[in-house]
Amino acid sequence: xxxxxxxxxxxxxxxxxxxxxxxxxxxxxxxxxxxxxxxxxxxxxxxxxxxxxxxxxxxxxxxxxxxxxxxxxxxxxxxxxxxxxxxxxxxxxxxxxxxxxxxxxxxxxxxxxxxxxxxxxxxxxxxxxxxxxxxxxxxxxxxxxxxxxxxxxxxxxxxxxxxxxxxxxxxxxxxxxxxxxxxxxxxxxxxxxxxxxxxxxxxxxxxxxxxxxxxxxxx
Length: 219
Description:
The protein is mostly helical. It contains 9 helices and no strands.
C-alpha cells in the first residue's frame, strides 16, 4: 500500500497532464482545467478515508463542510434571501453535520481496503462530480467528472502496483494484501449499497446526458 505522500505526488503529476491535455487538445477553458487538476488531487486521496488513523476522514469532513453550504445556497436561493443570519446557520449546520455525523459514519461503517477501495466507488465519484457541476456545458461536465474518476482510479492503480511483490511471492514470502481494484466490498451489504448508488446516480446522469448524446447520434 502506497503512502499518502506518494498518492499526492502521483495524482498531482496525473492532474497536470490531464489539465494540459484538456487545454491543448480538447480546448477546455483554463479555469475548468484547473478545477479538474484540483479534483484529481482531492479524489486521489479519497480512497484513504477508510484508513484506520481517521485523518483522511477528518480531512474529507473539513472539505465537505466548506463545499456543502455553497451547494445548498446555490440549489435553494431562499437560503440566500435570508441574509447573513440564515446563511450563517446553513454554514454551522453543514459543519456540524459533516464533521460529526459524516466523519463518524465513515469511521464506523468503512473498513480499510473495503468498498471504498473499489471500482464501483470510482464510478460513484464520477457520477457525483458530474451531477454537482450542473452549471457547466455537458462536455465540460464530463471532462471535470472524468478528472474526479481519474484521480480516484489513479489511487487504486498505485495501491495495486504496490501489491506486486513477485520476488517475495516466488520465494513464498510475500504477504497477501487486499485487492485495490476490486468489484465488491467486504460484505454483501456494502456491495449492494455501492451498486445501488451506481444505479441511482447513473439514472440521473443518463437523464441529463441523453439529449446531448441524442444530438451527437443524429449528426
